[in-house]
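task queued by scheduler; priority normal; single chain, no ligands, no partner chains; default sampling; output format set to structure tokens
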Amino acid sequence: MICTVYVVLMISACNEQQPEPVPTLPETIIPILESPYPSNTSSATHEIISSDPTNETTIPPETITSSNTPEPTFTFTPDLSATITFTPTITLTPTRTRIPSRTPIPTRTYRPSRTPIPTNTPTPSLAFFRINNIGPFSFVSSPVRPEAIVSPGEDGLIIVELIGEDGRMITKENINYQNYLGRRIGIAPEVSFELQRVAEYGRLSIYTKDRFSRMIALTSVDLLLIQLGSNKITLPKDLTEPYIIRQPAAEDTVQGGVIVVQGLARILSASPIIIECIDPDGNIVGDARVEVEAPNQILSHIPFEAYIPYSVDESTNIRFTVRQESASRLPGTLYLYSFEITLEP
């Protein structure tokens, strides 16, 4: 009890001696350290100062620690990794190795191996002498007009003749084309004839000669001559050159006593091919007969080879002729081709 009274008295005494409160200014926080470049862990110290100048007590500064988490400045790392991903695109260069692997291009070389195509047809040119508009065994009445491609002889003449089935000369005409020497021209002479019977088998021939009266070229067609009636013309089936001589060639010089002949031939009859070497006097200094097989579906011209022995005492100009005779009842030359060569002893 006594203690309780004592405490009450002490409280009342304190209330009497307590001074009036003095208004104070609000506390101000002053930053002590501020860095322009934040570090991983930066400290900002703030000092609390009392606004009372009489207060000598200094409140210890309050330290505020702030942790600044650095921003991810290395944002180029994804970009660098992206540029690294470009290196696989360089692998496109190995794909260029596919170019040499295109083997189908060299495999096309198999096409030339189809040798039957070029060998089947040696692509002969058109005949040097030929009749274009009348084929064999055409029915013709007088006058007949053949359209031919020819070249004048060395005398400038082109000879057109028509013979009958008994070998008689029905008509013959020498046409002067001296203005066309050395040229190939087209002609269409009018050939008139008279028959002693209603119809007759005949042959129309066109040929030329050289300065020694040796035949240069000849072409012919077998016809059925009629006295009355209209013409029944059949067209020629083949106008290519019948004889293609590979060896010898024109203006060659041959020596040794033997001429080696190589060539191709399209046969015109069952008769053999006759090869002759004729000197300027008309003498045959060498000849040969070559049997050629009939053409088939593969070859139009059959290859052949012949060896012709000859005998001359000095260098001699000869005319090398290739011809074929008729095997029908009307004899004579069907076609003749020739050129000049020189023979040495």
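post-processing summary
- The chain has four helices and 19 strands.
- Confidence is low (pLDDT under 50) at residues 1-67, 79-86, 115-121.
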